[in-house]
Amino acid sequence: KKYPELHILRIDSESIQDPEHPAYRCLGNLNQIIKNYDVIICSPSLQTGVSIDLKNHFDKVVAFSMGNITPQSFLQSMWRLRDPVERHFYCKPTGNTYIGNSSCSCKSVLESNQKTAKYAIAQLGSLDTQLRMDDVNSIYLETWAKIAARINASSRCYSDLLNHLIVQQGH
Question: Where are the alpha helices (DSSP H) in the chain?
């Protein structure tokens, strides 16, 4: 309403599934669709598997995160547009994605969340019937706990980690 002269497209989990919305199933031909718009507002639905190769169309990327996705995923979404334009972002100092008791220790996460751990093992273990169940349990349980602890650690220092990763990537 404030900028009626601009063509604005919203891309999120709802709009890409709504047959009445211009973003409906747009991920397959995104580069063709977005060139008809001045502003694209995206959710993390454009976080992976998408490359926006349109050149000299957009002049900046502005990103905002409340800490619902990992810093790595947030960065990945910021760089979907491959054109070297200005990038600005805002994020909370800490994230809000925690697993289990929010510990950064694998052992502590496992101890606090045995029910979830058992469910995760059952789900992941069903993927590989060749391994003995003991092997499946230990491999998948350890992997799940390591990932959970890593996500918890990244949420505690969300903005610091994000800034560090940006500098590490040469930006």
Answer: 30-34, 71-78, 106-112, 114-125, 133-156, 158-168
Give 28's contacts (C-beta < 8 A, 6+ positions apart): none
The count of other CB atoms within 10 Å of the CB of residue 23 is 23
Burial of 112 (0-12, 13-18, 19+ CB in 10 A): middle
Which of 124, 99, 121 has its CA nearest to residue 112?
99
Name the strand (E) or helix (H) holding 66: none
pTM: 0.72
Give the separation between CA 162 and CA 97, rounded to whole angstroms: 15
- pLDDT tens sequence for the chain (171 residues): 899 999 999 999 899 899 999 999 888 888 999 999 999 999 877 777 788 899 999 999 999 988 888 888 888 888 889 999 999 999 889 988 888 888 888 888 877 766 666 676 676 666 655 455 555 567 777 888 889 899 999 999 999 999 999 999 887
Dihedral-angle region of residue 48 (phi above 0 means left; psi in -120 to 50 means alpha; beta otherwise): beta
